[in-house]
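Audit log entry. Action: structure prediction of a protein-small molecule complex. Ligand: flavin-adenine dinucleotide. The ligand was supplied as SMILES and no pocket hint was given, so placement is left entirely to the predictor. Protonation state taken as written. Sequence taken verbatim from the request; no trimming, no tag removal. Recorded inputs:
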Amino acid sequence: MASLDFDVIVVGGGVAGAACAALLAAQNRRVAVVDARRPSFQAPDGDYDPRVVAISPGSRRVLQATGGWNRVDPARLAPYQRMEVHSASLQVAFAAVEHGLDELGWIAEIPALQAGLWEALENTERVQLFAPGVWERVELARNLVRLQLANGPQLRAGLAVAADGARSRLRQLAGIEVDEWHYNQKALIGPITTERANTGLAWQRFTEHGPLALLPLPDGRSSIVWSQPAARSDRLRELAPEDFIAEINRHQDSPLGDVTAVGTLHTLPLVRRRARRLVQDRLVLLGDAARSVHPLAGQGLNLGLTDAAALAEVLEDWTGDDPALALKRYQRWRLSQSTLIGGGIHAINEVVRAPAGLGRHVLGLSFGIADRLWPLRERFVAQACGIDSDSPRLARTAPTLSSRKAGAAAAGR
Ligand SMILES: Cc1cc2nc3c(=O)[nH]c(=O)nc-3n(C[C@H](O)[C@H](O)[C@H](O)COP(=O)(O)OP(=O)(O)OC[C@H]3O[C@@H](n4cnc5c(N)ncnc54)[C@H](O)[C@@H]3O)c2cc1C
């Protein structure tokens, strides 16, 4: 069967892979996107998809440049301007306005973000989508990647991006080793209603069973993420609504008041993974294929979008010759950041599991100190918002005429 030539093949069109494809296409590159599934987003009737994520201001800028963000219905996005994190009896609180920001982040449904990105990709001439696309063979030569689609053409490119998620098959075939930590925890997720509407507060408490977050939804409800021992999460999911409400109210004391209703709950197992390398010849890892982190800091997808912007930045001047130096820079940059952030999140999760609540007191103490030390707070906000000096240019700068043009080009407008 025929072969098709591209500059880059992106395997996996989740939010991170699709964003990467759009940014590379905006550099005038021919991009193939291969995904096992063609995403379709049917907005749930009067409800939200339970898979919601906190998107940082830096990530939003990256998404704006892809042309995907503006295709998401604003009525499905919940901006938040305030954040509180509690442990034991101490807390640290942030307000966007104190840091010169309009928002600290946005809560968005993953399928809605993905649909916006795919719509942008579908409208970009330089992008060809292969979905559902099953590939059966990959050949990583020194200067070329060949990907054989089942019952389809062979795709050839000077670079392949593995964005095929936490259990990346491409990563495995490339022989890249992964460190794994199984937490024996599951995140319990779903919507809840509180006495007072949530109009822009991201609230978290480190409870005796694990971190419980209440994140705003656009209709004034909140989405919870409660990470706990797996068996307990499963048990709580099965409780009658009134019993679950009583249980969660024993553990949450947010300014939103008591929980009064609960929607359908789901559980997701939590595993931290970290690829030891991000590059193998002409293959580069991105998003959850590169690492997955505990959700307690809401950073997983933000790291993946930072990868996408960082990869586009190091490849800015790539003309098709050997990109080894650029990829080396990408690997150094992204490995060190994910080790730092992933390791920090992991350490917090371990500390708070110390017996007799000791860890939660230690963490609370550090929150109390951070709450009073302005430079520390500024640094924390810049890092959590993805706009610190280590962030890619695209994330640090508000969309300018040229990046808006790039976004429009990516969206085919
Ligand atoms: C409970 C919970 C809460 C979270 N909260 C947050 C948060 O608040 N903020 C945040 O930033 N992150 C959060 N995360 C993390 C975030 O959800 C992930 O980091 C992110 O969704 C990963 O995106 P991705 O595009 O890298 O991978 P994925 O979304 O897994 O996409 C991978 C894509 O590859 C495709 N694929 C897979 N295998 C193949 C194959 N063999 N061939 C072709 N295609 C393939 C799949 O179909 C899919 O489209 C949370 C995670 C959990 C579990």
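Audit: result stored. Residues 3-77+110-180+273-355+386-410 form a domain with the FAD/NAD(P)-binding domain fold (CATH 3.50.50.60). Residues 400-413 have pLDDT under 50 and may be disordered.
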